[in-house]
Specification:
67% of the residues lie in helices and 1% in strands. It has 307 residues and is mainly alpha-helical. It has one domain: Up-down Bundle (Fumarate Reductase Cytochrome B subunit). A two-stranded antiparallel ribbon has the order 1-2. Helix 1 packs antiparallel against helix 3, helix 4 runs antiparallel to helix 5 and helix 5 crosses helix 7. The longest helix is centred in the first third of the chain and has 33 residues. Bound molecules: protoporphyrin IX containing FE.
Length: 307
């Protein structure tokens, strides 16, 4: 185990030096100053370089940090879950009996549409971030198109998903208790975990995917459509190119959070609890799992004579 960890850290260190060592920091005098207001025009390059309000920060982050952070966060999250799986392992619950019906066919279809969208969007996002390492060209261009197709699918699944889970995803007192015991995931034992239909971790993923999703769609659209004019920008003293830079910075940082939680969601639903995937296939969750992992929800169902 120690060896795997050292290997990952070593690889990360080498990669960090590789990026930081190669690229110079941009300095203010690198920007020529000439006019023109359209981004896509015969003076395109001059215009891009001319608007420097956010340009320097954007180039600095783009050159030095984004790839490094994406790489570090992804490897970090994967290592944490690998260690969790090897040291603590998955939770096992009895799957006898019919189980408790939790996800209607409508909810499952909406969920899988969103899942497909993310399966398209996240790997292709990584392909664009690491476009240089992949050699650029048609492969990365194709990734960009697939990224856009995935986004359209996400837009379609977004509203039904938001509406169907809005109420059960609202915060509750159980969430604080859940965080204090980290959802019972730090022990192999079955412990009674305070949670309603959804626990605090699931709620966090929902809100990041939904609210973060809107910001990702908006910032992504700004980068995709590029040459548009919003008169409101003038009032805030922002140029169009600056808006795209702010959009790119936001998209990258938020993208790291979304990607990290997406990996977390995959680990939780595929590995952390044995047989958890079944509920998104046939709609039924093991009664034993609900009794322990969603104890408040279980008590509520009992009280209402639903189980
Ligand atoms: C291949 C990708 C995905 C897989 C394998 C997957 C799997 C699952 C499974 C098995 C559950 C049921 C967990 C349970 O109730 O114990 C679930 C629930 C859920 N999924 Fe996914 N999912 C994926 C992608 C997504 C995406 C992209 C979103 C959001 C846009 C999403 C949002 C949710 C939410 C909000 C829930 C309910 C709360 C939770 O369990 O986190 N899922 N998913």
């Amino acid at each position: 185990m120690k060896k795997i960890l050292m290997l990952c850290l070593g690889f990360f260190g080498l990669y960090a030096r590789e990026i930081a060592g190669k690229v110079p920091l941009v300095s203010k005098d690198m920007a020529p100053h000439s006019g023109g207001d359209l981004l896509v025009s015969s003076q395109m390059i001059d215009n891009i370089l001319h608007y420097q309000t956010w340009g320097e920060l954007f180039v600095y982050l783009q050159v030095h940090w984004f790839r490094l952070l994406f790489f570090g966060i992804t490897v970090g999250v994967l290592v944490v879950f690998l260690l969790h799986y090897l040291i603590i392992g998955p939770k096992k619950f009895a799957h006898s009996g019919k189980g408790i019906f939790v996800y209607s066919i409508f909810k499952r279809v909406v969920h899988w549409a969103a899942a497909l969208a993310f399966v398209l969007v996240i790997p292709t996002g990584f392909m664009m971030i690491f476009g240089k390492e992949l050699g650029g060209g048609d492969l990365v261009l194709t990734a960009r198109y697939v990224h856009s197709i995935g986004t359209v699918l996400f837009i379609v699944s977004f509203i039904p998903m938001f509406l169907m889970w809005l109420i059960p995803m609202l915060p509750s007192f159980d969430d604080i208790k859940w965080f204090l015991m980290l959802g019972g995931y730090l022990t192999k034992k079955k412990v009674v975990v305070p949670a309603g239909q959804f626990n605090a971790g699931q709620k966090m993923w929902f809100w990041v995917a939904m609210l973060g999703g809107i910001v990702m769609i908006g910032s992504g659209a700004m980068m995709y459509f590029q040459d548009f004019h919003l008169s409101i920008l003038d009032r805030f003293g922002l140029d169009q190119i600056d808006l795209i830079r702010v959009a790119a910075i936001t998209h990258n940082f938020l993208g790291m959070a979304v990607a990290a939680l997406f990996i977390t969601h995959l680990y939780m639903s595929l590995f952390a609890i044995k047989g958890s995937l079944d509920s998104m296939i046939d709609g039924y969750k093991s009664e034993d799992e609900v009794r322990y992992m969603h104890s408040s929800f279980y008590k509520k169902l009992k009280k209402e004579d639903k189980i």
